[in-house]
Design a protein that fits this description.
The structure is a single chain. This protein is of the alpha/beta class. The strands form 2 sheets. The chain has an 8-stranded mixed beta sheet, sandwiched between helices. A two-stranded antiparallel ribbon has the order 7-8. Helix 8 links the parallel strand 9 and strand 10.
Length: 301
């Protein structure tokens, strides 16, 4: 797929949540059923351009920039918590005013759409999560409160003085992007870099996301609550994993057992960013899932 497939690109819009002006793009397809694409941490809404291009003939496709990401406002005095992100999705859907909705999310975005689907099961037709079942086990280990708070305070202090890295050119930023994810094609890396950076007054480039989104909140990770929300999802769910990712196999790890109606797809030669690494293979699974009147539980197509 080439950039030409995207035409003139999506239109930009804004909505409000907790007094923050947040940004989303509309790819078109108005009048079709609503489908929302939610990006992951330190990413941006335009990472979905190539996915959206294959969906707008059937869906009204929109994609938000999460708070602190892309062209959405940064937060002052917030932990960038999951509850805030889920609230923002709820506010976006109320703003758009179309229901029910199909949700697709990656990583953090996958976690957001799964939680929303568990809170409002009647509002979601189908939900797809690309590695959205939580962080690595070492990040959610149940440690004493004093350790979690001490680490969080130290992190906040370090982020207060951390300066965003500046790149002299887009090519330098793109090289960093490709270094972080060697699976990316040059075309995809260039596209993600162009839409994920901002040019500063001195002519250099920096990533758009707020450095504070890097912090892990000090609250205990509520696995019991998360499992309850997953078990409340009534609609078919697609769980996608890159075979070379750090994320665990949800069937082997037991997470998939909490979903009453799921399809599991594991895509080879792909890391954490499956829809970037193997776009065509990912779209085959997504199209099959969206076309199916009922997901086949546990089947890896």
């Amino acid at each position: 797929m080439t950039q030409a497939t995207l035409g003139s690109g999506p239109t930009s819009h804004s909505f409000f949540s907790q007094r923050l002006r947040l940004h989303y793009v509309d790819y078109g397809g108005a009048g079709n059923p609503l489908l929302v694409l939610v990006h992951g941490g330190r990413d941006h809404c335009r990472n979905w351009d190539f996915v959206a291009a294959e969906l707008i003939d059937r869906y009204h496709v929109i994609a938000p920039d999460l708070r602190g990401h892309g062209d959405s406002a940064w937060v002052t005095g917030s932990q960038y918590g999951m509850a805030d992100y889920v609230l923002d999705l709820a506010q976006l859907l109320e703003h758009v005013g179309e229901a029910p909705v199909t949700l697709v999310g990656h990583s953090l975005g996958g976690g957001i759409v799964l939680q929303y689907a568990g809170i409002y099961p009647d509002a979601v037709v189908k939900v797809a999560a690309i590695e959205g079942l939580g962080p690595p086990a070492e990040l959610i280990a149940d440690r004493p409160i004093e350790e979690r708070m001490s680490d969080w305070i130290s992190t906040m202090k370090s982020l207060a003085v951390r300066k965003p890295h500046h790149y002299e050119s887009l090519e330098q930023a793109e090289a960093r992007m490709r270094d972080a994810n060697p699976h990316l094609s040059r075309e995809m890396a260039a596209h993600l870099t162009l839409n994920g950076t901002m040019r500063l007054e001195d002519g250099s480039y920096a990533w758009k996301f707020d450095n504070y989104v890097r912090a892990w909140p000090p609250q205990r990770y509520d696995l019991e609550g998360l499992h309850r929300l997953w078990s409340r999802i009534d609609c078919p769910a697609l769980l996608v994993r890159g075979k070379e990712s750090w994320a665990a196999n949800p069937e082997e790890g037991g997470q998939a057992a909490f979903f009453s109606d799921y399809t599991y797809a594991e895509i080879g030669d792909a890391g954490h960013w499956v829809h970037h690494d193997r776009l065509e293979e990912f779209m085959k699974h997504l199209h099959a899932f969206l076309d199916d009147s009922a997901a086949n539980k546990g089947e890896d197509r």
